[in-house]
Amino acid sequence: MMKNQFKISSYCHVKQNKISLNGTIFFSAEAEESKFLKKAYKDLDINYSKFFKMDKLSQLAFLAADVLLQHENISEENQENIALVMGNKASSLDTDRKHQDSIQDKASYYPSPAVFVYTLPNIMLGEISIKYKLYSENSFFVFENFKTNYFYNYTQSLIDDKKADKILCGWVNVDDEDYEAFLYLVTPNGNLQHTEQQINTLYNELWKL
After folding, report:
1. How far apart are alpha carbons 69 and 185 in whole angstroms?
2. Kindly report the CA angle at 151 between 145 and 155, in degrees rounded to 5?
């Protein structure tokens, strides 16, 4: 049985204080990582009041997703059947460290709920879903590195089983000051083939930023 032939319509990278959209630098600024994310949020006029309450992992994913979905004219007002499939290698480690530090602080033992709520990586999927009213399938995986074949096969299974009209896929990782995001949108229409080779090619553009 022949698989449904979906395409990649757009892709986005965030790394080294730069955001690129479809291979072209979309935004850049001289700032340390956490300040860069907030500056990008302000300068790109992204409207979501909870952004400053998020941990860095959620801010990074939210920023990349918003740039990509806005480019695709995905409206916040209309419910879309877009699945989310993402992963990383550090889970929520960056926030977990802060949570652990607060537990070990004998002078102020009780950890802040504002930190604790972000000690699960799938919370970042929830933030994207809330803004864009996404109620479809969403999955998060932790691997040592970006496993193209797994993401391709999982995404293809969602398409073949007709569980989503579009799939936002990618890799979003934060570990201290090291951060990277690569997201791509798989749709019925697009200019790029949805193949493992094509996904690898697009992912490797991340290292050219």
Report:
1. 8
2. 165
Tell me the whole-structure pTM to 2 decimals. Answer: 0.89
Contact 60, 172 (CB under 8 A): yes
* Tally of residues, the chain: 209
Q: Which domains does the chain have, with CATH numbers?
A: 7-208 (3.40.47.10)
Question: Cα–Cα distance between 23 and 8 in angstroms, integer?
Answer: 13
Q: What is the pLDDT of residues 62-91, one digit of tens each?
A: 999 999 999 999 988 777 899 999 999 887
Residue whose structure tokens are 């798989």: 186
Rounded Cα–Cα distance for residues 5 and 82 (Å): 17
The pLDDT tens digits for 145-192 are 999 999 999 999 999 999 999 999 999 999 877 889 999 999 999 999
What 3-state class would DSSP assign to 59?
A: helix
The secondary structure of 91-123 as a DSSP string is TTHHHHHHHHHHHH-GGG-SPPHHHHTTSSTTH
- Alpha-carbon distance of 48 to 59, in angstroms, equals 11
Q: Output DSSP code: residue 80.
A: B
